[in-house]
Amino acid sequence: MPIGEFIQEHFINPILLHSGYNPINTIAYAIIAIACAYAIYKLFRRINVDFDKDFIVRVVPYILLGSTIRVVTDSIDTGTMQKYDGPLRAVYEIIINSHMYDYGFATASPGIYVIIGLFATATLYYSYKTKNRNLGPGIALALFIFHLLILMPMFINIEYLALILLLASLTAYIYISVKKSSSVPMHWLILFSQSLDGFATFITLDVYNKIAGGSYVEQHVLANMLAGLFGGSMVGFVLIKIALSIAVIYMLEKDDNAPEKGFIAMLVIIFGMAPGVRNMLRLTVGA
Asked: How far, in Å, CA of 250 to CA of 29, rounded?
């Protein structure tokens, strides 16, 4: 197969056709993500950044920002925003007609996360380089709140939002009740973030789809493979997420190299929180 057709079939068409992920682009994106993570690690270590609790907290607004922007795009792409007929209708008309959030390579996965990643890297690096560490995170937090306010009038499935947050919080609470301390920065947030992703997927596909007649589908290859092992249920996805989180924490605790430990913890948080928040908010607005 010519290289152009290969790229079209495995990378471009999945975005254009909303078909999600396949084994080829999943592996490719994973390799690219690992390479970028290594480069980012080296960049920040040049200015002696320790990937400690404070740094991870400053990364969280960027994660929330990327996920909320993604859901604004989802709300437009599915027609949810267009159907809104409340007091903010005029504001939504401006947003829709601006075409800033139209579904495309820059607003869909993985494009939106690449853009947010570059934005986070540049602003965090500048913030730490200039000793004004809250500058970039403050901008990201303000932008997150702005986009969350855009979404909030469309919230219709708040009970499912509450249920997902409750289950993820309960999982993290049980864990820290048993294991009160750890040498891993924000160890409880690792479990919360991964649980959030797992429960958001489970509640959407196993609960909401059956109770409310939803038509959400899983687009990730590995998650679908796990569902196949559990009779189509995403309960296995939740259990694997929790088990792997605890395993990662355990392995990191055995490593005395603090900077690498914190950086890996941060990556695990990102890879759980980003899709978890996106899926949770998308269900909440019914997009």
From this structure: 27
Residues in the chain: 287
Q: What is the largest CA-CA distance in the chain?
A: 56
CA 53 to chain centre: 19
Q: Please, are residues 195 and 245 in contact by the beta-carbon 8 Å criterion?
A: yes
Parse the chain into domains and list their residue ranges.
Answer: 47-154, 155-287
pLDDT tens-digit series, residues 39-69: 999 999 999 998 999 999 999 999 999 999 9
Distance separating alpha carbons of residues 202 and 167, to the nearest angstrom: 11
Q: Determine the pLDDT at residue 257.
A: 66
Q: What is the pLDDT of residues 138-148, one digit of tens each?
A: 999 999 999 99
Tens digit of pLDDT for each residue in 165-197?
999 999 999 999 998 888 898 999 999 999 999
**Token pair in block for residue 234:** 């995403």
Q: Is 76 in contact with 101 (CB distance < 8 Å)?
A: yes
HSE-CB at 30 with a 13 A cutoff on CA atoms is 10
Report the first-to-last Cα separation within the chain, whole angstroms. Answer: 36
For residue 13, give every residue at least 6 positions away whose Cβ sits within 8 Å of its Cβ, in sequence order, or none: 19
Structure tokens at 100: 């800033």
Residue-wise pLDDT tens digits, 70-96: 999 999 999 999 999 999 999 999 999
pLDDT surpasses 70 at 211: yes
Q: What DSSP element (H or E) covers 238? A: helix 235-253
CA dihedral defined by 22, 27, 28, 32, rounded to 10 degrees? 140
Round to whole Å and give the CA distance between 21 and 109. Answer: 10
User: Whose CA is closest to 104, among 7, 16, 10?
Assistant: 16
Chain-centre distance for alpha carbon 197: 8
Whole-angstrom distance, CA of residue 67 vs CA of residue 144? 9
